[in-house]
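User: New here, please read:
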Amino acid sequence: MTNRSQSRFWWTVCIVILGGYESLSLSTSKFRPRVPYSQTFQTSHRDSSKLHSSRPLYYQEARQEQVKKPQPSVDDNKRRIARAPTLRDSTQSTSSSLHIINYICTNQALLLLIASSTAIAISFFSNNPFEISSLHWNCAQDFHSLFDWQPSLSRILTGILATIPIVAAGRVIETSDNRDASRVNFATTNMVISLFGRRKSAMEPTESASFQVMVQSAMIAISSGISEEIIFRGYIPTAIFSMTNSLPSALFGQAALFAAGHQSKDAEPGENMLNWSLQFFSGLWYASVYQMTGGDILPCIIAHALYDMHTLCQTWIEVNNQIDYTQKSSMNHVGEERKDAAERLWKGTGISLNSETVDFARHFFYAFDNDHAGSLSLSDCQRAVSYAFMNDSIAPDTSIVRDLFEQAKEQRYTDGRLEYSNRLDFSEFLHLLVALRSNSREYSR
């Protein structure tokens, strides 16, 4: 095959692969529910101070079929508001969403089949046919075939070790207070809870068992690991290298295309940029592993699959732990805590909240108590504020949240409470949230 015909062939393969991958990303985006955050807080004795956007705090039920339902009455809406903070409405029906999981796995397999079939077909009709398994972009003469998956201890250990940097990078985003990072984390949480539902327990006997979620996570992770690695660390960089004869171009080009394939048309620009950066780093790392192992795709597949499985399982466990804690904590000292918080808020601001609003706020408060300490750290408060203002066009600056956090601690001495704690109780957090919402434009970025 001449250089010109080879370039034409690889351009064709790239277009077909990227077009198919983009279609896959868009077709599965409906199973990555956007976060429909929080219920409007009702206030009295002053103008309404909306602490949240108008949509309720639900995990969307992406796996249920959409059916036409009658318009709910006012009483129905009140009951829905009252139970919204339990985070259970989206997971009441069945446990995991097998048809979505099968859909994802099938599409990954179909995408790989289309890409491989296209390369084989063009090779068959070309003047110089070649074996698709011999394609590579490693400069060394010795390399592994793209379909050489014979396991060995060294190849498996390399794949396991290659997972560590990607997990570490993901953990940075998971623990970040940044608003865009919060969007990424909440989108992941919603996707996972929509796929696997709630955890099986004595009170939830029909929900998902841990072993079941591990198996289903493995199905998704292995299918995406095999498909995406062969395409993005096999076909595409080989195509770029054949056209440019430049290893850096192949390295950075495949990473950029890999990151572009993970963008969502429904996401905010900042969220897409953050996710693009993470996926670009992942693409660079997996490609570097391929090069460092002398052109071996198996460690890349192992690392990719392990990272995806880790993300799915860890997120599912953490969100179920937090929901369980939120439900349990919100039922303790309901009347006493509600009355104390409402009285202290009225005394400090002149704003009165109804009981449903305070109950909702209590659920919201415990949902962000990651340490299960009954109080929120500054980091917890930053994430809670990011969530509360998620659907607003403007959001409080992190420095403002920090200042209000410190003011709340100082107010304890004014109120005659001399205890020291670097965390806020529910009443103090509610006061902070009301202050932010009441002055949202003043406190915006």
